[in-house]
Design brief:
By secondary structure, the chain is mainly alpha-helical. It has helices at about 15-25, 35-45, 50-55, 60-75, 80-85, 105-120; strands at about 85-90, 95. Helix 1 (about 15-25) runs parallel beside helix 4 and helix 2 packs antiparallel against helix 4.
Length: about 130
């Protein structure tokens, strides 16, 4: 979907840019459009998501908005969010991610939690666990 189909103010605020991108991502069928928009804008601005709320009325610099639009366009094209930001949180660790790298899924975190719970029921020293393929 072309970005031109979703007009945005010429000099949007942080909040306006976020809402615009979330609407575009929603129409593109993204599962978490607001979260994706916030994470992309926070990445562009090098701030945490909370800063977007506290600075929502501030004008977004033109160069930041251009970079944000580029990332939103790629996200609309279904490029994984982790590839766009270059990182993915996994089990309290931030992993570097780039194209060609498998993006850790939430189900994998659940699997780790279940294995750790299972390990607690086993006698000490009775287990050998190998992480193969990472």
């Amino acid at each position: 979907m072309p970005l031109a189909e979703s007009p945005v103010p010429e000099k949007p605020t942080v909040g306006e840019a976020t809402r615009w991108a979330a609407g575009l991502l929603c129409r593109a069928g993204c599962d978490s459009p607001l979260l994706d928009a916030e994470l992309l804008l926070a990445h562009v601005l090098s701030v945490g998501r909370g800063a977007l709320l506290t600075h929502s009325q501030e004008a977004l610099p033109a160069e930041a908005f251009d970079a944000f639009c580029s990332l939103v366009r790629r996200r609309v094209d279904r490029v994984p969010l982790a590839w766009l930001t270059g990182e993915r949180a996994f089990y309290d660790v931030s992993l570097a991610v780039r194209p060609g790298v498998l993006v850790p899924r939430p189900e994998t975190e659940l699997l780790v939690e279940q294995v750790l719970a299972w390990c607690q029921c086993s006698p000490v020293g009775a287990l050998r666990i190998a992480d193969v393929g990472t």
